[in-house]
Amino acid sequence: MNGFAFRSAGWLxxxxxxxxxxxxFEQGGEAYARNRPTYPPELAQRLARLxxxxxxxxxxxxxSGQLSVLLAVHFDQVLxxxxxxxxxxxxxxxxxxxxxxxxxxxxxxxxxxxxxxxAAQAAHWxxxxxxYQECRRVGKQGAVIALVSYGVPYLEGVLNARFQKxxxxxxxxxxPPGRHQVETGYxxxxxxxxxxxxxxxxxxxxxxxxxxxxxxxxxxxxxxxxEQGRGLIFERFGEQLMGCWGEPRNLRRITWPISVRLxxx
Length: 265
Fold this sequence. Notes:
With 265 residues, the chain is of the alpha/beta class. It has 13 helices and 8 strands. Strands 1, 2, 3, 4, 5, 6, 7 and 8 form an 8-stranded mixed β-sheet that branches.
């Protein structure tokens, strides 16, 4: 097995298995910021257009600020919050973007100040009744609220069948309960606001094999499998995927569907 194959197919390795409790690996913002797909600029643009004014947007559960920086193009000011200081440490900076380490259920934003409140790939972790109460407090009359998620990606050709089997069958027991809400595009979450339609959007990336496997390593299911001593399931997946990928450096199109629960406060 050549060097690249060892990094990609035998991607767990003794070093990772022995250090999997390190925070930068399990929950670290560095890996998340580097290996997660970023949102298309059209998402922020369309959300901004729905607002009567573009003075303040709040990105709740912002992680490493992937959506926050896109919103900063369209709003006078963006407040991005997350409970993970480690995620915020790797967030991208903009002059009109402020990061705060605070919970979704207890914002320090003044009453009636926000034109947009968005939570991207985060709402399934919130205490929703308390979060919605905060949205009503900080949002202006008619402010837009958006729960954004991106679902299970699909790949090209035969790669997709292998990936889908791995996701839906091999990793099913390692995901936290809230993952179901992401898979259904938040359609089953309670949403006590006036609903609005939102156009179909996708995330598209052209990645090589190593990039895809690095993305999979950011999954909470991967961390759970390591903690249970079941990481070999993921290593075998890397080997199997390599067998049908072709040259590991070849780029393959990967697509994530974006779902948006959209409403007004």
